[in-house]
Amino acid sequence: MSAPVVIFAVGNPSRGDDALGPECYGQLEKWLKNENLAEQFELIEDFQLQIEHALDLQGRQLALFIDAGANTPGPFTFQRIAPTSGAACTTHELPPEAVLQVYVQTEGQEPPPAFVLCIRGETFELGEALSPASEGNLELAFELLQRLCRNPLLSAWEQAALA
Question: 19-162: which CATH number, 2.40.50, 3.40.50, 1.10.3470, 3.40.1350?
């Protein structure tokens, strides 16, 4: 049986602030274990989203996509998303909304309610470390992520998206 919530953390650890997704993944994995919440979540880390990630949405109650955004309002945005083939705020080719659309096309039903946590990044150069500004943004975003994981209900996440 699948965990009720799937969380995708997307980014390249070798490209400066694009490492925000993987960095968040590492922190979240440890935190969930320490809080005895790990069984409620499946964490998936990848360089970028692929159409195959639509299969990871099967049997879920909620989905969250975490990524860095080059032009994201700081320190982060958190919003509910819907299936579409349009562009998103992230730095990757296949946006989360397109993954949801693939799910609709392959499964013939609506995907689970899905959200994007897009953390503002400043520099995305190969070989760079996280910028000090993005580290601060990650810290603030992680506070929200902890609240979301303590209350993995659609109503709570929708309320957080409105704040």
Answer: 3.40.50
